[in-house]
From TrEMBL:
Domain 4Fe-4S ferredoxin-type intervals: 578-607
Source organism per UniProt: Takifugu rubripes
UniProt EC number: 1.5.5.1
Record SUPFAM superfamilies: 4Fe-4S ferredoxins, FAD-linked reductases, C-terminal domain, FAD/NAD(P)-binding domain
Gene Ontology CC entries for this record: mitochondrial inner membrane
Compartments where located: Mitochondrion inner membrane
PROSITE patterns xref list: 4FE4S_FER_2
PANTHER family: ELECTRON TRANSFER FLAVOPROTEIN-UBIQUINONE OXIDOREDUCTASE, ELECTRON TRANSFER FLAVOPROTEIN-UBIQUINONE OXIDOREDUCTASE, MITOCHONDRIAL
Function description: Accepts electrons from ETF and reduces ubiquinone.
InterPro entries from the UniProt entry: 4Fe4S_Fe-S-bd, ETF-QO, ETF-QO/FixC_UQ-bd, ETF-QO/FixX_C, FAD/NAD-bd_sf, FAD/NAD-binding_dom
Listed name of the protein: Electron transfer flavoprotein-ubiquinone oxidoreductase
Keyword entries, A-Z: Acetylation, Electron transport, FAD, Flavoprotein, Iron, Iron-sulfur, Membrane, Metal-binding, Mitochondrion, Mitochondrion inner membrane, Oxidoreductase, Phosphoprotein, Transit peptide, Transmembrane, Transmembrane helix, Transport, Ubiquinone
Catalytic activity: a ubiquinone + reduced [electron-transfer flavoprotein] = a ubiquinol + oxidized [electron-transfer flavoprotein] + H(+)
Cofactor annotation comment: Binds 1 [4Fe-4S] cluster.
């Protein structure tokens, strides 16, 4: 097998040990693949060349290609090297070591390094970490900044209205730590490797295959994209009785599993937000380590959910992490989350902190905001969903790391006795472990999410933000979420946009290059890169839809909701109309396009492993 240049030395050793398995491409396989390209869309020009849209057996480019696979087996395979996946891996090995059992745990991560695709605020609640490693301080966990000051504000265009942080409110951060989550995840990876977990960064799990498909699914196999068409080698497989899917928000494989197993049959549609973040070095006289600031209000109107954060880190230099979150259920197609973020930084309460400073990093990601109502069925034969893939974020807290970690630990504890049982009926059949769901519902994760279940949907009222704050004050602060009803969300975020003719265009100020910046210079700070010789991972189900529907009805909202300048409408070379251009090399893997596209025509699939952003401690 040809090894891409970004694969680690450890992964090279793994490949040498692989057994070659000859497999025929199955008609029932679910496909996903690789990316980059500039595209056009008119009546018929072809944009999408990806094999998820154009099957290999109908595409002449694949004629004569060798389809031999390499395969390996493990007791447990984990997809995704974030807090949930790593916590699950660590807990499995802790249990194996405690009980003297041999257990092979393999974890694959699409980023070139563990933590390179991790982005969050982040203010970490250490409850799950303390359960996983009671001695985390002695182990050197990078929690260097305990919260010392909590500030919450409602912003108007020129002023700030302070809101008292009363004990018991979900935004209270006493006992929490400001962290750079990428650094924390990297530390978790180090702990996992010390325990014997096999970690393979640079492997993007692209497909799910189902073997021994009789009544239930057998072994779930993960396939990986290829290097390029000219030097194509079929992606490898990893086989396991149980595979944990911890891909993060709106996971590519999770989308396949939802459809295959109808996992979302009995829950509400997930609702999302986009979070944009920058890291700044500021003047030391303005630095207040441990200070946490949150705000709602301006520049968003009362009916657009969102808010900001600004955290003062204590990492040996005067750093602040700041960001802006916009709920993706907004209805004005002219809204640009990126430009709202840039505008917010000029508020009189925010700008003084940044003046004279230097921006050193930028990134963006989607967030699950559906809460308890939107959690799908979590188990199926051969697999389990953990972390932000199904969505355990506590929205009013703006925290999901602690719940993601706990979900991974609970999954490990449910898996371990089943996967190590010596009286297993079959060596190949995938294990179905409903005990995980049962244990989760008995845990503090479920209790926490149940208590805040109505806060996010309470904002869907005539008074918007202010009505939601009143509801939170009465039913959460006073009654602790014990009201006997559960509110519903408004449906898919993609269905919330109004036609452009019914909305007012938003005039955004030009960036000044000191506090606010343009999009492309921001993307440059994310370290994003994709190899050019791969099919675009931003696929369209129908190449004619962008111009015929999105541009015609919604004025091309993808060119505004994307935080990386991936989508733009440009004139046709012939001068007769517009075409969609997809700059896939800019993609920061936030998946907002897949979520917010009003036509649900964009399908985000994984690119070649190792591509994407290169966040350094974001």
């Amino acid at each position: 097998m040809l090894i891409p240049h970004f694969i680690s030395v450890q992964a090279h050793r793994c490949i040498k040990a692989l057994r070659t398995v000859q497999t025929e491409p199955a008609a029932s396989q679910l496909y996903t693949t690789v990316n980059r390209r500039t595209c056009s869309s008119v009546s018929a020009p072809r944009i999408t060349t990806h094999y998820t849209i154009h099957p290999r057996d109908q595409d002449s480019r694949w004629e004569g290609m060798e389809m031999e696979r390499f395969a390996d087996e493990a007791d447990v395979v984990i997809v995704g090297g974030g807090p949930a996946g790593l916590s699950a891996a660590i807990r499995l090995k802790q249990l194996a070591n405690k009980h003297g059992k041999e257990l092979r745990v393999c974890l694959v991560e699409k980023a070139s390094q563990i933590g390179a695709h991790t982005l969050s605020g982040a203010c970490l609640e250490p409850s799950a970490l303390t359960e996983l490693f009671p001695d985390w301080k002695e182990r050197g966990a990078p929690l260097n900044t305990p919260v010392t000051e909590d500030v919450f504000s409602i912003l108007t265009e020129k002023h700030r209205i302070p809101v008292p942080m009363l004990p018991g409110l979900p935004m209270m951060n006493h006992g929490n730590y400001i962290v750079r989550l990428g650094n924390f995840v990297r530390w978790l990876g180090e702990q996992a490797e010390e325990l014997g977990v096999e970690i393979y960064p640079g492997y993007a799990a692209a497909e799910v295959r189902y073997i021994s498909f009789v009544v239930s699914v057998g072994i779930i196999c993960i396939h990986f994209p290829f290097l390029s068409q000219d030097v194509f080698e079929r992606g490898m497989e990893l086989h396991a009785k149980v595979t944990l899917f911890g891909e993060g928000c709106h996971g590519h494989l999770a989308k396949q599993l939802y459809k295959c197993f109808n996992l979302r049959e009995n829950c509400e549609p997930q609702t999302y937000a986009i979070g944009l973040k920058e890291l700044w070095s500021i003047e030391e006289k303005k630095w207040r380590p441990g200070r946490v600031e949150h705000s709602v209000g301006w520049p968003l109107n009362r009916n657009t959910y969102g808010g900001s954060f600004l955290y003062h880190l204590n990492e040996g230099e005067p750093l602040v992490a700041l960001g802006f979150v916009v709920g993706l259920d907004y209805n004005n197609p002219y809204l640009s989350p990126f430009r709202e973020f840039q505008r917010w930084k000029h508020h009189p309460f925010v700008a003084p902190t940044l003046e004279g400073g230097q921006r050193i990093a930028y990134g963006a990601r989607a967030l699950n905001e559906g809460g308890l109502q939107s959690i799908p069925k979590l188990t199926f034969p051969g697999g389990i969903l953990i972390g932000c893939s199904p969505g355990f974020m506590n929205v009013p807290k703006i925290k999901g790391t602690h719940t993601a970690m706990k979900s991974g630990m609970l999954a490990a504890e449910a898996i371990f006795p089943r996967v190590t049982a010596e009286n297993s009926e079959s060596e190949t059949a995938g294990l179905h472990i409903p005990e995980y769901s049962d244990n989760l519902k008995k845990s503090w994760v479920w209790k926490e999410l149940h208590s805040v279940r109505n806060i996010r949907p309470s904002f869907h009222n005539y008074f918007g933000l202010y009505g939601g704050m009143i509801y939170t004050g009465i039913f959460y602060w006073i009654f602790r979420g014990k009201e006997p009803w559960t509110l519903k969300h408004c449906g898919l975020d993609a269905d919330q946009l109004k036609p452009a003719k019914d909305c007012t265009p938003i005039e955004y100020p030009k960036p000044d290059g000191k506090i606010s910046f343009d999009l492309l210079s921001s993307v440059a700070l994310s370290g994003t890169n994709h190899e050019g010789d791969q099919p675009p991972h931003l696929t369209l189900k129908d190449d004619s839809v962008p111009v015929a529907r999105n541009l015609a009805i919604y004025d091309g909202p993808e060119q505004r909701f994307c935080p990386a300048g991936v989508y733009e409408y440009v004139p046709m070379e012939t001068g007769d109309g517009m075409r969609l251009q997809i700059n896939a090399q800019n993609c920061v893997h936030c998946k907002t396009c897949d979520i917010k596209d009003p036509s649900q025509n964009i399908n985000w699939v994984v690119p070649e492993g190792g591509g994407g952003p290169a966040y350094n401690g974001m």
